């Protein structure tokens, strides 16, 4: 009855019949063919209802899809809009439908253009169709460029030509285009990282910049950059600078950057220092690795600068630093003294946990010089070690007899030897601070 009513002489009857068919969850082949025929109806409201009815079906036969493609050329803008929306609801579309939707992006009616763009965003586009959007990124009209970036942003995979076009779009004068291009590239991280292997240094530079604009990179991306850091080609290693912008790095990335502090290429060393220096906090393992890197003359100053930026250092890190004081390299000793001066109170607190030789070294190469500058004092009373720093008095409670004895004997031994090789160096550091 409803199919027959589509041929009624009264346009209101035909319109209601098409509307009623649109409410059916599934339609027989005869209903599809009847609705396709109605797309040629002289009344635009009837045609619109027929398009709506077809659009509500989850799967359409090829004949219905082609009829909707034809409806994109309808004289009435509402019919064209509904045709675009109906095509956008399909899980997959033939290339002819995709090309028709691309053509609809030039429709004189902005609502139709928006509907076509939305439909294309829902579809996986073949590379031939993507080329139209890649070219549209150069269009003089910012609305066209916006729609192009939006469509590309919705694609699960993109060819390298699209990635390069989006990278260039990061410099578009329109903020919306730039934002959408950044988001699109964020979805394509794996492919974007592959672009870093391009032979053209300009392409690599742009790709690095694009990755650097991503506020958060997944750990899988960190692994790719770690691979770049270990590459024999210094240009490939340097593109890992995209990780510099990350406020939080994975443990493996941190370790890779620590290794890069000792790279023969100064650019890579600087890159690693910048990346590590931007970390608000570093795990103990990273702090210890930085301390281990101090003896290396290539890594020393970068590692020391990173350690200086840490507001606090755990006792284990301070113990490791004090152990490094025993190295005979005077420049290394100055670096360690500078670091200990940043954490004087905590340094005093770790004294009982040190070995006798480490206590002697700390006393001789650091505590005496600090005392001479700030009139600091340290004494043992009962089971407590008392000290006074520029921050005020402090004490270490609850020490056992063995610890107290160890501290006293180590101090006595250091005083007997009375060898103070770093007085001038330490005073110079203190003056600089």
UniProtKB/TrEMBL annotation:
Gene3D superfamilies: Leucine-rich Repeat Variant
UniProt superkingdom: Eukaryota
MF terms (GO), sorted A to Z: oxidoreductase activity
Matching InterPro entries: ARM-like (IPR011989), ARM-type_fold (IPR016024), PBS_lyase_HEAT (IPR004155)
Pfam families: HEAT_2
Name of the protein in its database record: HEAT repeat domain-containing protein
Organism annotation: Entomortierella chlamydospora
């Amino acid at each position: 009855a409803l199919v027959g009513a589509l041929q009624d002489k009264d346009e209101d009857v035909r319109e209601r019949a098409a509307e009623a068919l649109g409410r059916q969850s599934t339609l027989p082949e005869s209903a599809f063919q009847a609705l396709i025929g109605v797309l040629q109806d002289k009344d635009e409201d009837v045609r619109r209802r027929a398009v709506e009815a077809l659009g509500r079906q989850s799967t359409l036969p090829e004949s219905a899809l082609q009829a909707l493609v034809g409806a994109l050329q309808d004289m009435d803008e509402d019919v064209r809009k509904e045709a675009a929306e109906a095509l956008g609801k399909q899980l997959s579309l033939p290339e002819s439908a995709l090309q028709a939707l691309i053509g609809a992006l030039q429709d004189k009616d902005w609502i139709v253009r928006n509907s076509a763009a939305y439909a294309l965003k829902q579809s996986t586009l073949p590379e031939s169709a993507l080329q139209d959007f890649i070219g549209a990124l150069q269009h003089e009209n910012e609305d066209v460029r916006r729609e192009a970036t939006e469509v590309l942003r919705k694609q699960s995979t993109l060819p390298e030509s699209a990635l390069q076009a989006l990278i260039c779009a990061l410099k578009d004068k329109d903020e919306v285009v730039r934002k959408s291009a950044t988001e699109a590239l964020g979805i394509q991280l794996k492919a974007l990282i592959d672009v870093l292997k391009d032979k053209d240094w300009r392409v690599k530079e742009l790709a690095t910049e694009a990755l650097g604009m991503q506020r958060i990179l997944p750990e899988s991306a960190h692994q790719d950059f770690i691979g770049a850091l270990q590459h024999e080609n210094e240009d490939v290693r340097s593109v890992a600078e995209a990780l510099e912008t990350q406020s939080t790095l994975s443990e493996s990335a941190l370790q890779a950057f620590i290794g890069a502090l000792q790279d023969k290429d100064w650019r890579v060393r600087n890159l690693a220092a910048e990346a590590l220096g931007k970390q608000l906090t570093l795990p103990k393992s990273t702090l210890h690795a930085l301390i281990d890197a101090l003896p290396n003359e290539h890594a020393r100053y970068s590692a020391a600068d990173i350690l200086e930026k840490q507001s606090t250092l755990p006792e284990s890190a301070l113990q490791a630093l004090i152990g490094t004081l025993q190295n005979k390299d005077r420049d290394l000793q100055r670096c360690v003294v500078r670091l200990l001066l940043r954490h004087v109170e905590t340094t005093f607190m770790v004294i009982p946990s040190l070995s006798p030789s480490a206590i002697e070294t700390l006393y001789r190469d650091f505590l005496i010089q600090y005392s001479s500058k700030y009139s600091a004092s340290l004494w043992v009373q009962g089971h407590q070690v008392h000290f006074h720093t520029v921050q005020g008095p402090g004490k270490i409670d609850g020490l056992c007899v063995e610890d107290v004895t160890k501290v006293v004997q180590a101090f006595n031994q250091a005083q007997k030897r009375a060898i103070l090789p770093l007085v001038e160096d330490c005073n110079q550091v203190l003056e600089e601070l």
